[in-house]
Design brief:
Blueprint lengths: L8 E16 L4 E12 L4 E5 L3 H11 L10 H7 L1 H10 E9 L6 E9 L2 E7 L1 H11 L2 E5 H14 L3
Parallel strand pairs: 4-7
Antiparallel strand pairs: 1-2, 1-7, 2-3, 4-5, 5-6
């Protein structure tokens, strides 16, 4: 597929949560992992696993596929508090998932803020950063190198 990347990053056009059943055939048990799937402008999907359940829940509430719980996390609280969302929206400019720690397998996102002429970038847990971007209507990007790397890994796992 043709890449629509600019400056080495690809824009996210949709975000959805899914679950995957993982089986440990040696120990004889299985469990579900929560995945955060980012559909990219070039048609590919970038997936991160082991998303915190409170973030996944808030994303489902945001999309309207889940009723807000009686006992709220900070994430579901932010959904219903326009004042906090307005403050975030004024400062948050964009989110870029741009690093992978090869030892831990954990991604990192850079969150760009600007307020009254002051610019700063904060490193965050990607699922949290994605949530803030969705909450405020800001763009989310993924570094093309990470998408390509994930694609090569998936091909290797499939025996290709």
């Amino acid at each position: 597929m043709g890449s629509k990347e600019v400056n080495g990053i690809i824009r996210v056009v949709d975000v959805y949560i899914s679950q995957r059943l993982v089986r440990d055939v040696y120990k004889g048990f299985s469990w579900y992992v929560v995945e955060l799937n980012l559909t990219l402008e070039d048609g590919r999907v970038f997936t991160m696993i082991n998303i915190p359940s409170d973030v996944a829940e808030a994303l489902a509430v945001h999309r309207g596929s889940l009723t807000p719980p009686r006992r709220q996390s900070i994430y579901t609280f932010l959904l219903s508090n326009e004042g906090f969302k307005d403050v975030l929206a004024r400062g948050l400019k964009r989110v870029v998932i741009d690093e992978l720690d090869p030892v831990t397998g954990l991604y990192t996102a850079s969150v760009d803020f600007e307020d009254e002429g002051v610019n700063m970038t904060i490193k965050m847990i990607p699922s949290h950063a994605v949530y803030l971007a969705l909450l405020t209507g800001r763009n989310i990007y993924v570094k093309k190198e990470l998408v390509d790397q994930q694609e090569r890994f998936e091909e290797y796992e499939e025996g290709g």
